[in-house]
What we know:
- The protein is an alpha+beta fold.
- Helix content is 31%, strand content 21%.
- It has helices at residues 8-20, 35-39, 59-72, 122-130, 146-151, 186-195, 227-244, 278-289, 304-312, 333-344, 390-407, 428-432, 436-446, and strands spanning 27-28, 52-54, 76-79, 95-98, 105-107, 113-117, 134-135, 169-175, 181-183, 201-208, 210-211, 215-222, 251-260, 264-273, 294-296, 300-302, 324-328, 352-358, 375-381.
- Strands 12, 13, 14, 15, 16, 17, 18 and 19 form an 8-stranded antiparallel sheet that branches. Strands 5-6-10-8-9 form a 5-stranded antiparallel sheet.
Amino acid sequence: MAPETATPAALTALQQHLTEQHLGIPVVTPSSPDFEALRACFVKRDADAPLAIARPQTTEDVQALVRYCVANGVDFVVRSGGHDCAGRSQVRGALTIDMRAIRHVRVADDEQTATVGGGVLIRDLASELDARGLVTPVGTVASVGYVGWATLGGYGPFSTSHGLGVDQIVAAKLVNPKGELVDANEELLKGIRGGGGIFGIIVELTIKVYPLKDMLVSLLVFESSDLKATWTSYAQNYEKLVAQETLPPALQLQLFGIELPNLGKVLAVGATWTAANHDDGRKWIAKIAGLGNCLINNPEPRSVKTYVEFNETLLTFGSYGRGYTLNIKKYTPKTAEVLANYTALIPGGGIAMSLHALRAPAPNELSMFGSRVAHHMVELVTTTPVRDLEVKGAEWGYGLMRDLKERDPENVMESSYVALLGEDDSDYRKIYGSHYDELVALKKKYDPDNVFKYAVPRLFV
């Protein structure tokens, strides 16, 4: 439903105000030839066109926009990469504040930290750090907005070796509901680590960085003519391996049930090694390949920028549908059978399942992230550029989650990843666990009027 402020008069008033105040903030209107390209997000929502798109160039621009919107009752939503799996960065009739021009990356002289702009994309960050032989934990896709990814959790190839995205945040600057620029204090910083932008528009983060030139990357593809046997064998052998040995933190495994050209529907494992000793990495990746009948294993060094840019080519920006998620504890035989069944049932159009591992997560009571136990985050990529497959993709995703819960209920965790949920399936008390009441209290304290009501998580308090 469009906000009541979404009228031509509201747009005219905004433009007049910016002109009178000599604020050179670009505003792209629906009549502009650039409007559709600029509002495009990963999930396509044709009906959810904004009132306009404001493109702040500086922190002062963000402050001015917040002050104007609050004073004039104009609803707004903030976006950077636009990868929200449920399209929540698109609100019909609201003003979109597009942060992508605020994308600076400044590495400290001691190369221990970097400050990054609120609209920086993972590709921008990886590019700047690569040039210095540095890394920081990031996700797997270049066009994802870093701040949203990091502040809501931040799974990726560095999750076990260096920690989640939330674990990298050491400082933050944000614009509060009054339009003031504030440095986050300790309790607000804790809230941001897991609560994202619900307290204000984050215009800058200071994050940890680490020395590393290249990752080691390989896609392992297993013989999958009998998917049940392939998934079951891998699951049993993996659980046996981790019971006998401690996997090195540098080794990260992302499982896929996916349809590949010329290979069909297969079990594949994206293996990454995030340490300098690549000989050790090759040995461990070969050991993982030995957990089944592996047809393809070609480990090669890649910079983080090259890695995320390649993964970008596997997605279609502007897809239909939405994503789904849940967390599981282990690869049990029952879970493996469900995953095998739904790999066989993939309806096509790029729809797939992806399982992200979080092994031995470091405790961090200075964050709100709720899933601080070893688990696998099941990401159901039910978005597709093929519009006719949108409904089938949703049915496939719902069915997979239903069967995991019904057939192996003890293996499904209560908590799940807020960044991959939608409002209709987000139980925030379960997502945040023991941190929920504290997060709600912080929201009431720092945004009592719910100015940032379209931020994720949408806590209506």
